[in-house]
Amino acid sequence: MPGNQKNSRRGAARSSSGRGPSQRQLRVGEVIRHALADLLRREPLRDPVIKGISVTVSEVRASADLRHAKVFCAPLAGENQDEVIKVLNRSAGYLRKLLGDELTLKYTPELAFVLDLSFDEATRINALLATDQVSSDVAAPDEAPADVEDPEDLEDAEEE
Questions:
Q1: Please, is 10 exposed, middle or buried when counting C-beta atoms within 10 Å of its C-beta (0-12, 13-18, 19+)?
Q2: Are the beta carbons of 116 and 88 closer than 8 angstroms?
Q3: Residues 6+ apart with CB under 8 A from 30
Q4: pLDDT tens over the chain, length 160 residues
Q5: What is the span of the domain harbouring residue 93?
Q6: What is the torsional sign of CA 43, 49, 54, 55?
Q7: Does residue 1 lie within any of the structural domains?
Q8: What CATH number is attached to the domain comprising 116?
């Protein structure tokens, strides 16, 4: 029954696509990211808030139908982050038009700019890793006593 195999394969493909972005979404997101970064470098926006500020486009997530794209970006110096995102969202239509001239997609996605907090999070984690307590833990891992198996018991023993 070849018909049943075909249907079962289709069902498997649909269920696996619900877990994350497809290869096409990832590929389109990367193409949009590169094109947007190039556009923002080449075609400066005329808004005084963003004048002279470099914007880093770190990720673009395309929707399943490729008609919407969420652009994660941040000003390079970290200045006026909220204002820069507002300016980019106000200019989204203009940037979409320029993007459509650059790309060969059937539909140019609507752009929504979002502040990328991953740089701040990475800085926070690096600061935590640089603290004396973490440095000493990494340099010499703790050896638990043989008679203590539960981590809560270990904490209780340290408090006494």
A1: exposed
A2: no
A3: 60
A4: 444 444 443 343 344 456 788 889 999 999 999 999 999 888 878 888 888 888 889 999 999 999 999 999 988 877 788 898 999 999 899 999 999 998 888 889 999 999 988 777 888 888 888 887 777 777 665 555 455 455 565 555 555 5
A5: 20-131
A6: negative
A7: no
A8: 3.30.300.20
